[in-house]
Amino acid sequence: MGKALAVLRSALFFLFLFVTIVPWATVAVVYSIFVRGERVYWLCAGWLTVSVWGARVICGVRARVQGWENLPDSPVVLLSKHQSAWETLAFPTLMPHPLCYVFKRELLWIPFFGWAMARMDLIHIDRSKRAEAWSKVAEQGRRYMAQGNWVIMFPEGTRTARGSQGKYKNGGTRLAVETGRPVLPVAVSSARCWPRKSLVLRPGVVDISIGNPIPSTGRDADSLMREVETWIEAEMRRIDPEAYPA
Q1: Which pLDDT score, from 0 to 100, does residue 197 have?
Q2: What are the extents of the domains in the chain?
């Protein structure tokens, strides 16, 4: 009965997302013809706020944040654990500055959702052209951070299953070193409620832990990423200990 209820609630949640994204994205695309930049971002972030609210009300997925005091006022490269789509939706509703996601360009092909993303100051890349992709990340990342935005990247590159660890790639720390910006590590236990490759959300609490900003000046990208990896993985074991049996 519990699983059947979770399936029903999840179906209602995704229906809620579809019903709300169509008018919201349409307004955002039309609005972006006349206005660009931060105002378009916050308009789209309004739908994300509604989506996170829907996950809480319909599916019982709540958030608990630790480390608010570690959020800086100046731009950073935010590097986060990635376990589900939940943090992708939630982070813009939590962070005080616009986030520039680095993501695969195929997401732009999703009707309405992708169309709205295309009108925002985000960084979409072709993963098959690695050199070209990095040049785009470096050039646009530098420009957007100069405007006061934050760049967000998921070092493992894709979602990982609860209790597992992917290979941490140094693209985010490389960008931080080249721009002189600090990195901000974040641990998030979203797979507790929204498992990887699943469309069924389970009631519970997603813990988000924000670490201290780590300066990049005088560092090399590899050692800096190892420090980020060490902090995130240790913090994951603290906020979600049942996922990491001794």
Answers
A1: 87
A2: 2-243
